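ok so for the tutorial part 2 we go from a plain amino acid sequence to predicted structure tokens. step 1 is just haveing the sequence, like this:
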Amino acid sequence: MSVSPRWWLLALALAPPLMAQQLAINDDHPIFADAFPLAIRGTAAPESTVTVQVENGLPMTTRADAIGDWSVIISAPLSTGTYTVTARGRSATTTQLLRVQLPGPLQRQSGIAPPEPRYAEMDRLVTDAAVVMTDRWRIAPPPYELDEFPAARPIGHRGVTLDPYNRNLIKGDLPIRGDDTFLVITAISDTLSESRTLPTPTGVSTVRSGSIRFFGRDDQNLFNQNLDLSVDLFQGDTAFMPIRQRVKATVIANLNYLHVEENGLVKPDVRRGTRRTDGELALQEVFYERKLRDLTPNFDFLSFRAGSQPFTSDFRGFIYSDTNAGVRLFGNGAANRFQYNLAFFDRLEKDTNSGLNIWHERRGQQVGVANLYWQDFLVKGYTQQFSVHLLHDGPSFKYDRNGVLVRPAPVGVFRPHSINAVYFGEAGLGHLGRFNVDQALYVVLGRDSLNPIAGPDPRFRDGDAVRIAAGMTAAEISYDHDWFRPRLAFFYATGDHHPRDRVARGFDSIYDSTAFAGGGFSFFNRLGIPLAGTGLDLVERGSLLPSLRTSKDEGQPNFVNPGLRLLSAGVDVDLTTRLKAIFTANAIALDATQTLEALLFQSKIHRQLGDDFSVGLRYRPLLTNNVIIAGGLAAFLPGRGFRDIYESGNTLYHIFTNLILTF
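step 2 — the prediction. this is what the tokens look like for a chain of 663 residues:
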């Protein structure tokens, strides 16, 4: 039988790929060695020549036998560590990992073998031959502590690579100097696209000529892009004890774009139209940290940190959560059962449109925080926190970047005034049996020298100051059942029933970022809702409190406000290991409406604001936080009180997508 030439051509064309597929080292498995000489075996095309090289060593040449097997002998011993073995055939190259763990006086206990007897005769230490060891960061784990098929990859100079999943010099996996100095470089891209409907006044110059309605079109679109670069240099044996000293800096570049349907919103000047594009570059975080001393053999410690640093004073961010300039003393005790913080912040001004810090402008607001976390409080698995917050907000006069007066608030008597307040609080987080319990209680006392809504004292009794006496409480109970967690919650902040009686009873925070009752997926929590015609907001972005501030970033706390009553029900569902859904329904009402009635010159405003329904999705395609895709859809159904204020019962909507990429 004759064979057509075209079949010979096809066979010749397929030969190199088939041969390439045959080239392998150790059946594509990592090689483990604890003694030398060492035989490395593999397969290749029959009768083909194979060149084998370990890291930067001398290449060794061998020849595959008739069935394709080959082997080489490494006689020179290698130090303990991880090496890359490269094999080259006629037209193919492959690599594999070689892990060397030489025997020494310290034995590693197997996770599957029977344990050694606790008391036994001590072996004599052999010192005749020194065992060459690298630092502990490069010790190769034994086979039973490794993945069955670890990724083989070429290792760059001293371990620098763009692969964040394996050991990397710039991700803190290997020391950059000596054996205790590490570097972590983190890059983050945070992209937010958001569409929403909010009550929008037409102002003095409406976009549509002939319009006579007070409220105009309510569509708004926001795009926000942050690029973060963090460099964290620290010293210490972090796998065994707290960091000895550390320097960290984070630079953020921001681009934001806003499109609305009415004039006078992006800027007070109506000639600026309905679109705004802005950007900011900020050194958001830079601090130095040093461990002052070890307190116990259990690595209880006392450390100090100075500079612009992130700090959240409680579990849910109810009172203070910010990155700002300050000093902080922190540590733990009783084998980490207690953790504590003593912090002082002299806050910087924030950029109006990006919310980033402005390094050369001080805010004139000082915050002091002392808190204590007590693990296994009364019952195991429950952590209790006690805290004291001190606030001094000095008198100032401030226009924001868009030309809007933010301090003092432009209502009533707007003269610069100071606020001094003390917050006493407790909070708990943990589980009682099968139930997860999360609760908080705060009381604030203090003095406001001249609240703009309360105004001067009409009876001239004790100057124009008002006394602050307000409170807040919140709780959430949830139950984990397989892949879903139903939850019930309430939130209550006192309101001021008598705005002119010289006692401010409306609760307000210092700078909150509340993750509660749906958090960032909730319409009411996520979006700032302006109070038309006043220069104030009913509620600030990222807050649950109807504090009637000009701005959470740049305005002053206001303790003459209507307060809030909120009931929440929801369920968190792990749809897959990668996809999580958060469903939340909130019933929202004001605690007192007298402040709004005085401010808007309107009587009999109903307490019921409305109902907030939201669904959020969080997707992690790689099962890590390197890629996070989040999105949400929320609807707010106005209640009678909301209709009294905004003259509309139309349902408000909010939809957003957020892509976070992290290296």
